[in-house]
Design brief:
By secondary structure, the protein is mainly alpha-helical. The protein folds into three domains: 67 residues, Orthogonal Bundle (434 Repressor (Amino-terminal Domain)), CATH 1.10.260.40; 63 residues; 87 residues, no CATH class. It is built from twelve helices and four strands. It has a two-stranded antiparallel ribbon. A two-stranded antiparallel ribbon has the order 3-4. Helix 6 packs across helix 7. It is globular. It starts with a helix and ends in a 6-residue tail after the last strand.
Length: 261
């Protein structure tokens, strides 16, 4: 097998591993889907495009030709998450690296000198969350479709510490947006809204990766919470005829849509 075929095979393996479609890859690297399909079929694309694909996948060319050495994490173990929660600075650095921050960007932006950051990276390397090669080479071991464990230590930390701080705001800045809506919807309508939320989340990720090419001082911290569930506020339930949540008729399910910043 020639070198280009090996690289193409490696790209396809990482796309499957990280659950990235050709269409999504095309959007992330700024070309059309037919172009991606043609490139991966022929194996003759520009080196600049290969560099961009490697950047999106979070791998080097060497790792593409030796795919057996890479096993991207879609989630951490309970022990790994608990170790991060026990050391909030390590949790912050992990979050930054998962979101493609570079060594010098972290040092220049946060109150961490190089020695302190190196100490944290050595800990993350030992936890096998990051592959760190002194003095500054660091590579995340998480996949593009990485997520925190449901009901895990990090999610519990988020719900207890981060979420209340996020909502403690007037949401009155030019780019801010807050909506809370509630109503009676059919199951089909709720599924339609869920699909819309997933599209918005995918667009957020696409824009994030596009803007990653810009200088750090042209980008701004931004967070969004998108949520939908069958739910009814307890005070409504108390006032219903028959009383109590257990007497809530099936048709009375409401949807609570999330806030976006």
């Amino acid at each position: 097998m020639n070198s280009s075929a090996v690289i193409v095979q490696g790209i396809k393996a990482h796309l499957r591993l990280q659950d990235i479609s050709y269409r999504r890859l095309a959007g992330l690297i700024g070309v059309s889907e037919p172009t991606v399909k043609r490139d991966l079929a022929r194996g003759n694309f520009p080196l600049q495009r290969l560099d961009r694909i490697c950047e999106v996948l979070g791998v080097s060319v060497e790792e593409l030709v030796q795919p057996g050495e890479t096993s991207a994490l879609t989630e951490l173990s309970e022990q790994q998450e608990q170790a991060l929660v026990n050391d909030p600075r390590a949790l912050v650095v992990t979050y930054l690296i998962v979101n493609d921050w570079k060594f010098d960007e972290i040092v220049s932006t946060f109150e961490l000198d190089e020695n302190q950051l190196v100490a944290i990276l050595l800990k993350l390397d030992k936890l096998r969350i990051v592959d760190f090669r002194p003095p500054k080479r660091m590579r995340k071991l998480t996949a593009r479709n990485f997520s925190w464990r449901k009901d895990g230590a990090v999610q519990e930390y988020f719900m207890r510490r981060v979420l209340p701080e996020f909502f403690k705001s007037r949401f009155d800045q030019p780019a801010d947006e807050f909506r809370f809506v509630n109503g009676l919807l059919s199951s089909a309508s709720m599924l339609r809204l869920r699909a819309s939320i997933r599209r918005v989340a995918a667009e957020f990720e696409l824009l994030y990766h596009q803007d990653a090419r810009l200088p750090l001082d042209e980008r701004h911290g931004c967070s969004a919470i998108l949520a939908l569930r069958g739910w009814e506020y307890s005070e409504f339930s108390k006032l219903k005829r028959g009383g109590g949540p257990q007497a809530t008729p099936r048709r009375s399910r409401g949807g609570a849509a999330g806030a976006r910043l």
